[in-house]
## 1
Amino acid sequence: MKPAVLVARAIQPEVVARLRNHFDVEDNPNDQVFSKDELIARLKGKQGIFATGSERIDEAVLSANPELRAVCNMAVGYNNIDVPACTARGVVCTNTPDVLTETTADFGFALMMATARRIAESEHFLRRGEWKKWSFDMFTGSDIHGATLGILGMGRIGQAIARRGAHGFGMRVIYHNRSRLDAAIEQECRASYVSKHELLQQADHLVIVVPYSPASHHAIGAVELAQMKRTATLTNIARGGVVDDAALAQALATGLIAAAGLDVFEGEPAVHPHLLTVPNVVLTPHIASATVSTRLAMADLAADNLIAALGFGPSAGKPPTPINPEVLRPAP
Ligand code: DGY
């Protein structure tokens, strides 16, 4: 008998078909977002879950489903998974790093540019039929080329954004990270390490790429926004909750900073109502990794992880991108 797995959201049919070669698959072609109770019920008797950031896998889910052996996220972020709880139960967790780095960096850069050059705001103005004449100061924004790019969180995606800024747009790149990067990587990205305070004070365009954790909760709030230049922009492609959205909306409304670009939100898909009323913010629905080829690469990698984690395929027992590899080691 094949092991049973749940594919928690609608995904590419060819990936579901590949999973069916190994598993008895319950999929979700109607793309219903399951409540916690429904998720627990659907996981009954399942050994694996192909998850997305929408499914919270915590102690309640694990204890109700002791047969669960693998939680494979189709996302690089995994703040939806209680990894220590999984590790304690010997449940392997995986994510999808690398395959989305360049695509997500492209989007971060695009969102930063749209924010600085007021692209969404001016497009809405045009669509409303308000464009009647040229004006010297109509939708004047701030330059990207030659400006100071500040990056908070210098993992793979932060580095890819730094390269775009330094090599493509002649930007001065500064970053802050939990730990300083190797000199060779700094050199390749042409990026200088600064304190968080210096980052906030000096950046013309601040891009947030730090993973969400209790330690990064509201890493950018009222206090941090007050340290930024009034002409600065802020772009968040990391996770909702890293930025205090209420404080950001207030800062945008009062001109404490010039503009923001947000792809992620606290409590998404809900968006803080104040953000919806301020014009100087570009809002997108968590699509930084959303290209056809990258989303397929993410789904394929999550499937490879699930197949291997449950003991099938060429790398049986060795999922390519584990988050908690310690559960894979044989007991001493
Ligand atoms: C990720 O991979 O973590 C993205 O935010 C989801 O698209």
## 2
Amino acid sequence: MNTHYLTTSRTNPQFYIFSQLFGDDLDWISQCDWEGIQNVAWQEFWQREGHELLEQKWHKRFPEYKDLIEALTPEEQALWRELWEKHASDSSAKFWHIFSCAFENYQNELARSFGFQLNTTPDGVEQNLQTLSLNNNPKNSKQRKPSESEEDESYLTANDDPDDLDEEQQLLLLGLPTSFASKGVHKKRKQRKPVSESSSSDSEDSDDLSIMEDNDNSALRGVLNGGVKKNKRRQRQANKLRARMPEFMLEENSRMVKYWFKRFSLFSRFDQGIRLDRESWFSVTPEKIAKQTARRLACDIIVDAFCGCGGNAIQFANTCGRVIAIDIDAEKLAMAKHNAGIYGVAHKIEFVHADFLQFAASTRIRPNVVFLSPPWGGPDYQKQSVFDIEQSLLPVGASHLMQLSRRLADDVAFFLPRNANMSQVIALSGAGQQCEVEHNYLDTRMVALTAYYGSGIIKGPLGEHQPN
Ligand code: MGP
Ligand code: SAH
């Protein structure tokens, strides 16, 4: 089985969603419309992000364009238009390529999560995958053909960004072990020189990166330029970088450092003073995923039952009339309030310090939707090949949480580990009911899944929900 890991940029990975309905009456293997799922996912992605991506890349290539265009003759303008069209078609082909790899990973991961239902002998799995056309190259889809430029690609990043150096190099710079750097990210470094970035998050990243660039050629430069000075400078810069990281990350045998490198993917406004405690560093929902969940769950009143430091609640505040954000930990709630202030939405959220189990059993509030993102037992959730959502979620199993939530609302959404036992996820729908499972990818890596229950929020034939 061929799993692809391609990446755009750690600070701004692309977000892909693949979603499918499941129910106990549905034989998903025979009914699965892979091409349909792929096409919908691509169209949604391109509608959501395509225009901005094209604009950003264009601006990077031709920063002088805006000033120039006014003064050009009509003939020159026509040439620029042609260039833009080529840019649009080449860029979309590159994004399509990464998207296709994510989709192929989705097919494989979904098949694996239904392992019990597939023939598990190696030959059988291969055969099953072929039956499911899992090995079809998604590039064959009729919907959209990539341009020829895709054929001879030497690129491995979609943005042509220089800000995508190996995580390993960052760790080496910090003098940390590299064993947990992204697995299987096969990348070729672009030779191009960095172009300065506009957003503060990116510029912060390029700081880190210029240090690393230095590190790269240190031996050679040491000879040419007087290595001692350079080494000192690099050391100073590494110290500066280290000083910005939370203490515990450096103390804990470096297991947590990977979350630091994702900080802008967790909160685009991270550098405006976002606060997170240890648990929240590994639990917070990355912003692009939280935004998508908020779009899907737009309603009058939503309960965010496990608010943490506010990753989801902040986004709900932008799409829902009233957000009731609950957490058992008062310190996290205070951080959530502070973080919501950074996004200008603190006043739209009611922060409730409570145990959700007690809250659900006693409240008279009747929200339209309950959103559940409970603790999964820390990053070790990955150690289970199939994560048991009845035994391993905290504070109680998934069915219990569902039962309590259904006291409050018919529509419930669950943020769950990517290795969650799919049979259990589907069983939560209840007899004769369906659920919609959304697999969330940042670039080609699955981050987690979101399961939707209740006809008000499920998309598709049985659900009433129409995407906003
Ligand atoms: P991860 O698996 O720790 O990170 O969490 P990653 O980068 O996928 O790990 P890698 O080793 O494969 O590189 C992925 C995402 O899951 C996090 O960003 C959180 O959004 C979410 N998440 C992780 N944990 C441990 C929890 C949790 O306990 N509760 C909730 N609600 N979300 C979690
Ligand atoms: N979705 C959040 C992260 C949630 S992490 C975000 O994006 O920021 C899970 C949270 O559940 C933790 O903050 C933890 O304090 C909280 N929690 C654990 N048990 C709880 C309970 N019984 N009631 C309410 N919150 C609880």
